[in-house]
């Protein structure tokens, strides 16, 4: 009986030792890889830096939401009035050189309006708007004035952008790499080394569009027609590159 008990205790002790070892191995495998294993070449003398660059360009494109809002006691009358004005606006946009692919319906709503008691329907409100892309900013102010004269009474914020930013981004990449090399060179010299070959490069692209311009559409008055002042400002593009250089 004592022999059997002794064997049982020994087996339990062995199992406990195996469990502890398994737990240690599991923790080792579960530990995240160090950052060094993801940067550069393990075992090499190296330095990792982040180069930064920001370039600015003048926007050449604007998008704007242009719409019509109408009301009438009957829904069909509000819709008919709205349709006439919306068609007139779209026709005016085409006359001003806006292509059909640069106009897209973005919002259409019909809903009842109520008396102050919130129960009795007094009429119906119809809104219809399109997002318009303006590719010639020199004509943007005149375009806004003309669509108001054609019947637009709802114009939301203008957003400016650079239609093709590739040239600006290419310039920013070159400058970011130059900045990274200068930083690495400074660190290497301070550590008694020299910068060698590039081992890894990681890029992060960002952009900062100019703030939107708010424009409230006034009531149409052909006698006081004048171009709306539009200032596109500048758009910023940033490039950050993380670069690892070998050290000599």
Summarize the structure in words.
This protein has helices spanning 2-30, 75-95, 140-150, 166-190; strands at 46-57, 61-72, 103-114, 121-134, 154-155, 159-161, 195-208, 235-247. It folds into three domains: 2-31; 39-56 and 166-207 and 240-247; 61-161, 2-Layer Sandwich (Alpha-Beta Plaits). With 248 residues, it is an alpha+beta fold. 35% of the residues lie in helices and 33% in strands. It contains four helices and eight strands. It is elongated.
What count of helical segments does DSSP give? 4
Q: What best-fitting shape do the alpha-carbon axes yield?
A: elongated
Strand percentage: 25-35%
Beginning-to-end CA distance, first to last residue: 72 Å
Quote the CATH topology of the largest domain: Alpha-Beta Plaits
In the predicted model, the low-confidence regions spanning at least 5 consecutive residues are 1-7, 24-37, 216-222
Rg (CA only)? 33 Å
How many strand elements? 8
Taken in chain order, the helices and strands follow as HEEHEEHEEHEE
Mean pLDDT: 84
By CATH reckoning, the class of the largest domain would read Alpha Beta
Helix content estimate: 25-40%
CATH architecture of the largest domain: 2-Layer Sandwich
User: Number of folding domains?
Assistant: 3
Report the major sheet: 5 strands, antiparallel
SSE class: alpha+beta
